[in-house]
Amino acid sequence: MANHVSSLKRARQTTKRTAVNRSNRSSFRSSLRALREALQKGDAKEAAAQFRTTVSAIDKSVQKGVIHGNTASRYKSRLNARVKAISATKPASSKKAAAR
Fold first, then answer.
1. Which of 6, 51, 67, 93 keeps 20 to 30 A from 83, CA to CA?
2. Which residue range(s) make up the domain with 74?
3. Distances (CA, A) of 70 to 24, 75, 80
4. What CATH number has the domain bearing residue 73?
5. 81-91 pLDDT, tens digit each
């Protein structure tokens, strides 16, 4: 354990910052999980709505230093591609059903 006043203060700061970082990381991961579940269900509208909130959470996590900016860009790009793929398959399948 720390003995100096400055190191005791640093230990206190570390515990507080660790808690804040853990909370931020948890909310970021929860948002990602919710979007992935919406994608898995195949509901295009729900996935699009969840995508907007997830992108916001990703951007906030970059601002707070939870993830790197390039990592955020990679996440957003891949998730956007998946959302587009789901929204593209839904209307195509309804067109096929209408043609029959």
1. 67
2. 28-99
3. 18, 9, 15
4. 1.20.58
5. 999 999 888 65
For residue 92, pLDDT beyond 70: no
- The 10 Å Cβ neighbour count of residue 62 is 18
67: left (phi over 0), alpha (psi -120 to 50) or beta: beta
**How far separated are the first and last CA of the chain, in Å rounded?**
75
DSSP for 16-75?
HHHHHHHHHHHHHHHHHHHHHHHHHHT-HHHHHHHHHHHHHHHHHHHHTTSS-HHHHHHH
pTM above 0.70, yes or no: yes
The reply to whether 74 falls in a domain is: yes
Give 23-58 pLDDT, tens digit per residue. Answer: 999 999 999 999 999 999 998 999 999 999 999 999
Residue 3 lies in a domain: no
